[in-house]
Amino acid sequence: MFALQSDRVALRFGDRTLTHTELAACAGTLAQQLSGLPRVAIWATPAIETCVAVVAALLAGVPAVPLNPKVGERELAHIVSDSAPALVLAAPGTRLPAGLDSVPRRDVTLDGGDFGPFADPGDEAPALIVYTSGTTGAPKGVVLPRRAIVSTLDAVAEAWEWTSEDVLVHALPLFHVHGLILGVLGPLRRGGTVHHLGKFSTDAVAQALNDDGTMMFGVPTMYHRIAEEVGDDLKLADALSGARLLVSGSAALPVRDHERIAAATGQRVVERYGMTETLMNTSVRADGDRRPGAVGVPLPGVEVRLVDDAGLTLDDAGAIGEIQVRGHNLFTEYLNRPDATEEAFADGWFRTGDVGTRDEDGYFRIVGRKATDIIKSGGYKIGAGEIENALLEHPGVKEVAVTGEPDDDLGERIVAWVVPAGTEPSPGELADHVARLLTPHKRPRVVRFVEALPRNDMGKVMKRALRA
Name one GO molecular function term (predicted). Predict the structure, then answer.
């Protein structure tokens, strides 16, 4: 799965580094100790030990469960009970919560020695079990086979022209698909380097890209901070201009931020679309048209279709439907949840719950989540993202989320939750702004001003929390 025999730096966390050869020795030694275990948990702090632990588990063929260090008591108790890890791996000196007291602990050290070859567990063997954040009910453990990880990493490498010469810069959490699978296993499979910043800051990004970074991964909240500063920060603008590839994922990148970064740097951010159960589905290619709001075309080996509410395939460009996916990138099952696994598929296609459209040339655009981002108002199906992008063009709007709420006349009325940029604009002014840019039926009927939008660890706005 990895190219682990070279003196090129594989992992860089601050001033701590491991070459590919050193990583192989450390991970191989640990893998011998894990061999034969049914499952291990990994306390996934942003540290070099987390990466060593994941590679060791993969070498040993032992499924690994990455744990969010900010996980709450109830969620942790559910994950431990559901996944039943035989060990929890953690960096030395890291304090673990009481919810892990029942699980034996093993510290991950950077000591390496000789080790023998490990048996290949097979393409369908579970590699990682990643727990979804869960909008309703307890989180589900998404079982990702080795086949899905390999196919996704090779597909994005082809689309992004990713090689061993690339140095990937990011500050993403290591318990999630974006930061761990793409952001760590991706460079390791290519034989390149991951430079993890520990904590995101525009200064750290500029320094790392100016040093030797060639690529950056981020989420929209990070790119928003970059967009806010890059026009006045020449060092940051120069660093981004020199990067080979800037990639955004985990949520839609607002068009306004996309354009501000492009204006200051000449660089257009590549957007892609994936989720825990499917890993990566589509992406704008490195040599493709990096148009704002588009998440590109299906990756090699991935099929994507749109279906209507009756499950019929939509072939017309511009039609809005649920995105369904099939291919080698798919997960195997939800751990201990055969009912949920069966419900997630329709004739072999995974039902993403995301709603999108397809342009004439095959580029996909994400409209939003079927449950939270499609508003049925006055007989119209309205995507929240379109209204959010329109509102972000108003100078009085810093951040915004759009939801629907019940309305006796319209079915649902459009509600805008606005973080103002300075003085609050009037609700009428914002409604007129949207009506002018889009159409009158898409204007917000209610505007609520808030100090901040609730977000999860990946920067996604938690709209259910807003409505609650």
Answer: medium-chain fatty acid-CoA ligase activity
